[in-house]
Amino acid sequence: MKKALLILLLCLPSLLIAQQPKMHIKLYGGMNISTFVYRVENVEPELLAGFQLGGGFRIKKRALFAEIDFGYITQGITYSPREDHDIAIDDDITLVLRGFQVPILAGWVPVRTPVFGLYLYGGLENRFSMNGRIYYKDEEIKFKPKDAQLHFYNLGARFGTQIDLAMFNFDFSYIIGVTNSFRDRTRTNSHIFMFNLGFLF
Fold first, then answer.
1. Could you report the per-residue pLDDT of 100-135, keeping only the tens digit for each?
2. Every domain of the chain and the residues it spans
3. Which entry of 22, 55, 102, 122 is 20 to 30 Å from 172 by CA?
4. CATH number of the 21-200 domain
5. Mean local confidence (pLDDT), 145-164
6. How far apart are CA 50 and CA 106, in angstroms?
7. Three-state SS across the chain?
């Protein structure tokens, strides 16, 4: 009996350590494609493309996990006078929007091995608009979010999946805007598809 008690006392710390949450620090970069969908007739959605960089923390306990990230995102679109005759310009004009993202995510880990993991998640995407830029010929014009009728803060719902392969993380996600993207009364939803390649520490 004493021997069994002694073995239990010796094994207890290792069992407790095994139940502790595991934290990963993640650095990532990737690409995004987004659309602004206007809820008015005869207005086509606008397609933007860009990239994002960031980092964050992911905490896993058993089959559940939570994550918070901090990222920088750019999205751009180029208007060409050859494609749109209503625009009175001679050369292409490029519009670049910049923002800061803070996604707060939670999810389930259906598969986890020492070298492979599958994560399914959902959560909220907090987006803060920063100064944008317009490029025309050799000029660069900066503008504030309110100058483009953009809200400073936007909320989105984010769903996605992550795959861990050793120390690499592959993240595929979809974000749909919950709040109106523009300050006017026209209902405008943003839809963003994102792919990130990350490195886990």
1. 999 999 999 999 999 999 999 999 999 999 999 999
2. 21-200
3. 22
4. 2.40.160.20
5. 93
6. 25
7. CHHHHHHHHHHHHHHHHHCCCEEEEEEEEEEEEEEEEECCCCCCCEEEEEEEEEEEEEEEECCEEEEEEEEEEEEEEEECCCCCCCCCCCCCEEEEEEEEEEEEEEEEEEEECCCEEEEEEEEEEEEEECCEEEEECCEEEEECHHHHCECCEEEEEEEEEEEEECCEEEEEEEEEECCCCECCCCCEEEEEEEEEEEEEC
